[in-house]
Amino acid sequence: MPRGDWGNDEEMSEITYRKWLKALRFEVVPTQGGVLFIGPNHFFSLPHEPRTKAERKIAIAHIRALGKL
Questions:
Q1: Nearest-angstrom CA–CA distance, 46 and 19
Q2: How far apart are CA 16 and CA 5, in angstroms?
Q3: Distance (Å, whole) CA 48 – CA 27
Q4: Are 10 and 16 in contact (CB under 8 A)?
Q5: In angstroms, rounded to a whole number, what is the distance separating the alpha carbons of residues 38 and 4?
Q6: 47-65: pLDDT as tens digits
Q7: Distance between CA atoms of residues 26 and 24, nearest Å
Q8: What is the sign of the dihedral through the CA atoms of 16, 27, 66 and 2?
Q9: pTM (2 decimals)?
Q10: Where does 1-69 show beta strands of DSSP type E?
Q11: Measuring CA to CA, which residue among 52, 13, 30 is closest to residue 5?
């Protein structure tokens, strides 16, 4: 997704969240203890799928930061 589509005031709807996951090549896999985010070079887990706008933005920001490592 173009950089212009990412902003602090942007609503992180479920559709936008899914588009970001796809663009960053991450999958969300449910597990017994939560969810696992699996990408091309990194993975991490959360206790549940992000449900709110803020949680989705934090998850995407975390994924983007992993890509800069």
A1: 19
A2: 9
A3: 14
A4: yes
A5: 25
A6: 999 999 999 999 999 999 9
A7: 6
A8: negative
A9: 0.76
A10: 27-31, 34-38, 43-46
A11: 13
Between the two ends of the chain, the Cα-to-Cα distance in Å is: 19
Average pLDDT value over all residues in the chain:
85
Which value, in Å, is the radius of gyration of the alpha carbons in the chain?
Answer: 12
Strands 34-38, 43-46: pairing is antiparallel
Give 39-51 pLDDT, tens digit per residue: 999 999 999 999 9
Backbone dihedral angles phi then psi of residue 16, each to the nearest 5 degrees: -60, -40
9 pLDDT band (50/70/90 cuts)?
Answer: very low
